[in-house]
Amino acid sequence: MQVPDTAAAANVLIATDKFKGSLTAVEVAGHLTEGIHRAAPGVAVEALPVADGGDGTVAAALAAGFTRRETGVTGPLGARHTAAYALRDGVAVIEMAEASGLRHLPAGRFAARTATTFGTGELLRAALDDGAREIVLGVGGSATTDGGAGMLAALGARFLDPSGAPVPPGGGGLRELAVADFSGLDPRLADTELLLASDVDNPLTGPHGAAAVYGPQKGAGEDDVRALDLALVHYATVLHRVLGARAAEAAAAPGAGAAGGVGYAALAVLGARFRPGIEVLLEVLGFEAALRRATLVITGEGSLDEQTLRGKAPAGVAAAARAAGRPVVAVCGRLALPAAALAATGLDGVYALTDVEPDPARCIENAGPLLVRTGERLARERLAPAG
């Protein structure tokens, strides 16, 4: 049964994140659009794929009209590869994982102590070369715990051991740090607004810091975590001698522990401002204008769970939609939020693919067709005229 043409007055805004391990945010929006148009061919659908600063951030910017730019960078283990970023009107959107992400490690191999963020610094430098004067640095999915030292080195900083030689790459090498010299930093950084876009608010060190919380995801065992945390403490101590109180303040600030301490380097040395990634991306992508046109907002991600509530994209979209008085529903692969937590999100409804296909493996494998069917169902239930 199709919705009558009177549903054409509706204007649906699809602002979904990726379904991790299955579909990109662009693909999710495409499948939902197809399903909606099968049930309600006259409905206007605007797709604005979103991200929270991690994987998919550049893709979201490109879908919003940014231009794709590419440059050669140094990967986390030193191998060269091509990385992309997005540029429009002097604003660059950089996804750290493009240069220094886990996906650039050989299968099954981790390098918790030696992986470097040098390539992320090369991405920043390329954006400056392209004329960017505002840079959004999205962090997430990194393979590194080097406190952003590699990134800073690519931008002109020097980190030396007691003999005056450069310290080895990676967080492990920071234990040998004696001198931090920022006199050679790219001068263009002083005239550039840098926004650190992240969905985590961890400090640099300690039990809630970069090494302790995220090191194990990067292959760090207990000994590695202890060694990396001590190295980051030493790193912050050396920077405090050079930069003064702002280095200590940055180490304790929310977001300092993001991406193995890249947040700390950005805050303490580059003068970045930390903001929740989804807030930054919604602003950069032009979400506010699209929201004004919408009569219904659809958001979502692969798993709607407790992590969603900690600054993930669907929570940010839902909050913005509620503030604007727009109804908002979510589409997800699986729903893992208890009823009370779900009610607190303000969502007007949730459509989980597991409602259609209970087998999680088959759900992931057939996410595209299941999203089309979900889009049809959503259109019938949410876009049909009253009466």
UniProtKB/TrEMBL annotation:
Gene3D superfamilies: Glycerate kinase, domain 1, Glycerate kinase, domain 2. It holds the Pfam family Gly_kinase. The keyword Kinase applies. GO terms for molecular function: kinase activity. Keywords: Kinase, Transferase. InterPro entries: Glyc_kinase_flavodox-like_fold, Glycerate_kinase, Glycerate_kinase_RE-like, Glycerate_kinase_sf. Belongs to the glycerate kinase type-1 family. PANTHER family: GLYCERATE KINASE. This is Glycerate kinase.
